[in-house]
Specification:
heterodimer; A: mainly beta; Immunoglobulin-like; 2 domains; 16 strands; 37% strand; globular; B: mainly beta; six-stranded mixed β-sheet; three-stranded antiparallel β-sheet
């Protein structure tokens, strides 16, 4: 009986010892690896198609004198300087007529319970001249994004979402495009590159196909809407957001104009 | 009581021995947890770093002065098909170095098929390399 108690005690001490050892020696244990992009969650079947008779057409301008575009600080990588001499930041891009580029415009409200099929056409994001191209991207939740590297050097694509899964992958020269999917809506999802600190992009994920990014002249167009009254949101990385109510009919495109200033955020 | 004391003493000796000796701190090093040297890996593979004897931490924001560098604190950098830089070198913010200034230790890496060298190198808060804190492995990327 006494021997049994002693045996139990010895085993207990050994177990505690092993446990302490494993904690004390600690070190850097392998952690759980990031999983691959999860398979799209099962979502309700779409009920509508994006072929309605309504169009929203508009233009976004910058009011005031825009600041002079700043050169990108590429000096740390001579290959980037050579690839894109004179490249400037895209934080605020204003065209000759005051048109504001890179505003993400989307239907924020008014579609009700309609559900739209996810486009099977991938959205392209390239890394070219040590910049993300395009700088502002719109994509549907569940749609595939295809990320390429056209540069003769390594970049890493580091997405830092709030609602979606973070990812970070290195993409050396001559490697094939990489696909990723965002499952949840999210506006202004930042991408960065941890090789070149100036490289950034913003991806905007919405649950339907009614969105656009303003062009060089600040214009945009959203087609295929059903008739109705919608809340349109306009998002700019530096200048903030605006919303507008817009009524869409089949008779003619609904016209929208908006203006941002440096103080409008 | 004597038995308990003896057990504690023995345990501490075992711990010290297992961790590298009572008076020998763990060797400062950085290494690849995965993949391992000589491994055959997929074209898109997870790479994870590990370390001992140092603390991995995010780089403080802003411009740092040399006196603000925290001794013993490092962050990782990885290079593909490149070798360790000499100690004291500032790791450039340029190809082929991916910085982990956020203090993280995992990345997925896309690689072309064939043999590649992977190098993990530690940097201090000013991205300066530290003697002995670098490892290079060879991997083969499957078709």
């Amino acid at each position: 009986m006494k021997n049994d108690k002693l045996r139990i005690k010895n085993v207990a001490v050994a177990c505690v010892g092993v446990a302490i050892l494993s904690v004390a020696c600690g070190g850097s244990e392998p952690s759980s690896s990031p999983a691959a992009t999860p398979a799209p969650a099962s979502v309700p079947a779409p009920t509508d198609t994006a072929d309605g008779p309504g169009t929203i057409a508009g233009a976004v301008t910058f009011a005031g004198t825009p600041p002079k575009p700043r050169p990108l600080p590429m000096e740390s990588d001579p290959q980037c300087v050579a690839a894109a001499p004179g490249a400037t930041t895209e934080l605020l891009v204003v065209g000759p007529g005051g048109g504001l580029k890179n505003v993400f415009v989307y239907v924020k409200d008014g579609l009700g319970a309609r559900r739209y099929a996810v486009s099977s056409t991938p959205v392209a994001l390239d890394q070219k001249g040590c910049s993300y191209v395009p700088h502002v991207v719109g994509i549907q939740a569940g749609q595939t994004m295809l990320v390429s590297n056209s540069d003769p050097l390594i970049h890493n694509v580091h997405a830092m979402p709030k609602n979606n899964r973070e990812f970070n992958f290195g993409q050396p020269a001559k490697t094939p495009p990489v696909s990723r999917v965002f499952e949840k809506p999210e506006i202004g999802l930042p991408f960065k590159c941890d090789v070149h600190g100036w490289m950034n992009a913003y991806v905007n994920v919405v649950p339907h196909p009614f969105f656009a990014v303003t062009k060089d002249d600040g214009s945009f167009e959203i087609k295929g809407l059903p008739e109705g009254t919608y809340t349109l949101e306009l998002w700019h990385e530096r200048l903030g957001t605006q919303t507008q109510a817009v009524t869409v009919t089949a008779a003619a495109p609904a016209k929208v104009s908006a203006s941002f200033t440096l103080a409008s955020k | 009581m004597k038995i308990v004391s003896a057990v504690m003493l023995g345990l501490s000796t075992v711990i010290a021995a297992a961790c590298g000796g009572a008076n020998t701190p763990p060797a400062n090093r950085v290494f690849f947890v995965t993949p391992t040297n000589g491994a055959t890996i997929k074209p898109m593979s997870t790479i994870e770093f590990g370390s001992s004897g140092v603390t991995v931490a995010a780089v403080p924001p802003g411009e740092l002065k040399p006196e603000q560098v925290r001794p013993g604190m490092i962050h990782y950098h990885i290079a593909v098909d490149s070798d360790c830089l000499p100690a004291g070198t500032v790791i450039p913010k340029a190809d082929p170095w991916v910085h982990f200034g956020d203090g993280k230790k995992v990345i997925e890496m896309s690689l072309t098929p064939g043999p590649h060298r992977l190098t993990v190198q530690a940097g201090d808060d000013m991205h300066r390399t530290i003697a002995g804190l670098c490892e290079t492995i060879n991997v083969t990327v499957a078709q």
